[in-house]
């Protein structure tokens, strides 16, 4: 709760009169977690939020493998050492996959990763709304995940995320404590072109 209010102070929308939901700029990716478990009933709403994401042909290509308890300990093996250090206190590790082909015709779904990214963001925002840590990860061995969990080639391993209860940053190693704060962003003018042109280097 306290960490959320810190985030609200640091991150601001573009100007004070740009009215966007505070959820967008108060969500961030902490690493400090308490090690407490989170019951299924508390995790479920995050996936309910993911459920309503838009997707091409409403194909809903996202899949989430949820690992808690003993399964979570096994999935820790997938992570790079940096991520192992802070994920040990997560309540759950999630493996995010997407189906490469459409269900209705088995043809390649061009936007399967894009669609699954939308679902992941919904999950992350709902987690933030509930004061949970939801932290995305690329730092793991993708091949090991595919082999260990026997993921067929028709699915893409997109990312992992850690979910847990907030904790004070003192639970983290010193170098991570210094990074334990919401990060900044590019200006809108750096990623938007209003002239209908591609003008980035
Ligand atoms: C797909 C993805 C992969 C990421 N991989 C890692 C990771 O392996 N380890 C880590 O500590 N943070 C990871 N992050 C967190 C990002 O560094 C973080 O989201 C980014 O710096 C923006 O900060 P914010 O989420 O606090 O706004 C990842 C985030 C995403 C979305």
UniProtKB/TrEMBL annotation:
Domain Nitroreductase: 26-79, 83-165
Keyword Oxidoreductase attached: yes
Keyword terms, alphabetized: Oxidoreductase
Record GO terms (molecular function): oxidoreductase activity
SUPFAM superfamilies the record matches: FMN-dependent nitroreductase-like
Superkingdom of origin organism: Bacteria
Entries under Pfam families matching the protein: Nitroreductase (PF00881)
Family: Belongs to the nitroreductase family.
Protein's UniProt name: Nitroreductase
Organism (species): Candidatus Nomurabacteria bacterium RIFCSPHIGHO2_01_FULL_39_10
């Amino acid at each position: 709760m306290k960490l959320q209010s810190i985030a609200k102070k640091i991150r601001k929308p573009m100007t004070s009169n740009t009215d966007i939901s505070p959820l967008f700029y108060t969500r961030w990716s902490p690493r400090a977690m308490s090690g407490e478990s989170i019951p299924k009933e508390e995790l479920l709403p995050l996936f309910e939020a993911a459920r309503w994401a838009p997707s091409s042909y409403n194909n809903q290509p996202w899949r989430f493998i949820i690992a808690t308890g003993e399964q979570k300990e096994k999935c820790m093996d997938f992570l790079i050492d940096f991520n192992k250090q802070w994920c040990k206190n997560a309540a759950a590790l999630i493996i995010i996959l997407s189906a490469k082909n459409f269900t209705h015709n088995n043809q390649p779904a061009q936007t399967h990763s894009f669609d699954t990214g939308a679902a992941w963001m919904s999950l992350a925002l709902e987690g933030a709304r509930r004061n949970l840590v939801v932290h995305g990860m690329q730092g793991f061995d993708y091949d090991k995940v595919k082999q260990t969990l026997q993921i067929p080639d028709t699915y893409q391993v997109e990312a992992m995320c850690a979910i847990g209860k907030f904790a004070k940053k003192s639970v983290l190693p010193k170098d991570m404590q210094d990074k334990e704060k919401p990060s900044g962003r590019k200006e809108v003018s750096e990623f938007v072109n209003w002239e209908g042109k591609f003008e980035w280097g």
